[in-house]
Design goal:
Cyclin A, domain 1, globular
Length: 125
C-alpha cells in the first residue's frame, strides 16, 4: 500500500521502471523493482522526497539487477551497467551510488539476499 502523500511520486516512477524492465529484463524484475519502490515510498520520511526522481528510478533498477548478478561477466543474461544508467540518462557512477544507498536503507548485507533475488537460480552466472 502506497501512502497517499507518496502516490504522485510513485506514479511518476512506475512508467520509466516499467519501460526499462519490459525492454531489457522481464516481469520478475519489474515485480522486484516495484516492490523496492513501494518500500521506499513507505519509509518515514521517504527518501524519494529529495533528489532527482530519474536517479531514484535508475538506482532501483540497478539495485535489483546487482542483487541478481546481472552485471557479472559470464552471466548468461548479462546486462551492462551502462545500459541501465544510459536509459535513465545518468552515469554508471550515479546509478551505482544510488543503488548502494538503497542497499544500505534496506539493510541488505549480501548480494543475492533472498528477498531481492530469484530463488530459481535462473540468473546465475
Amino acid at each position: 500500500m502506497i501512502p497517499k502523500e507518496m502516490q504522485g511520486i510513485y506514479n511518476c516512477l512506475v512508467p520509466a521502471i516499467t519501460v526499462f524492465c519490459e525492454a531489457q529484463l522481464d516481469a520478475r524484475y519489474l515485480e522486484k523493482c516495484l516492490a523496492a519502490l513501494e518500500k521506499l515510498c513507505r519509509k518515514r520520511p521517504s527518501p524519494l522526497l529529495s533528489g532527482n526522481l530519474n536517479t531514484w528510478a535508475a538506482g532501483i533498477v540497478y539495485f535489483v539487477c546487482a542483487q541478481n548478478d546481472r552485471f557479472v561477466r559470464g552471466c548468461k543474461n548479462r546486462l551492462d551497467a551502462a545500459e541501465v544508467a544510459g536509459f535513465f540518462d545518468l552515469s554508471v557512477n550515479t546509478a551505482s551510488t544510488k543503488a548502494s544507498q538503497i542497499r544500505k536503507m534496506f539493510r541488505v548485507k549480501t548480494y543475492n539476499e533472498r528477498c531481492w533475488s530469484f530463488d530459481d537460480g535462473s540468473d546465475d552466472p
